[in-house]
């Protein structure tokens, strides 16, 4: 009996996590839409912004980004193509592996990321912190 209750509690906690994720994702999409982005777009910009070198540039392999934003490589490739078309990122060949592709923020992408970072953090604060 106790094992069944523990399983039910675990399943309920999982449903709560899923509901919180769905709610937060919707709130992020709504807030970021005003800036021409969705939550996944922002996540890619955010990952790319984290490792800036001294000269303000940084690039990541598509596979490295995929591991951080939890998108399939094909979905991420489409997203990156859209961000590149909008002038927010640029793609280049990977120097250490000619088959690989590296992605970096453009100046426009860095500016947009800086503009919307407070918006994203405010949504996270509002949806993920307890009173």
TrEMBL record:
<keyword id="KW-0805">Transcription regulation</keyword>
<keyword id="KW-0804">Transcription</keyword>
<dbReference type="InterPro" id="IPR036390">
    <property type="entry name" value="WH_DNA-bd_sf"/>
</dbReference>
<dbReference type="InterPro" id="IPR039422">
    <property type="entry name" value="MarR/SlyA-like"/>
</dbReference>
<dbReference type="InterPro" id="IPR000835">
    <property type="entry name" value="HTH_MarR-typ"/>
</dbReference>
<feature type="domain" description="HTH marR-type">
    <location>
        <begin position="1"/>
        <end position="131"/>
    </location>
</feature>
<keyword id="KW-0238">DNA-binding</keyword>
<dbReference type="InterPro" id="IPR036388">
    <property type="entry name" value="WH-like_DNA-bd_sf"/>
</dbReference>
<dbReference type="Pfam" id="PF12802">
    <property type="entry name" value="MarR_2"/>
</dbReference>
<dbReference type="InterPro" id="IPR023187">
    <property type="entry name" value="Tscrpt_reg_MarR-type_CS"/>
</dbReference>
<protein>
    <submittedName>
        <fullName>MarR family winged helix-turn-helix transcriptional regulator</fullName>
    </submittedName>
</protein>
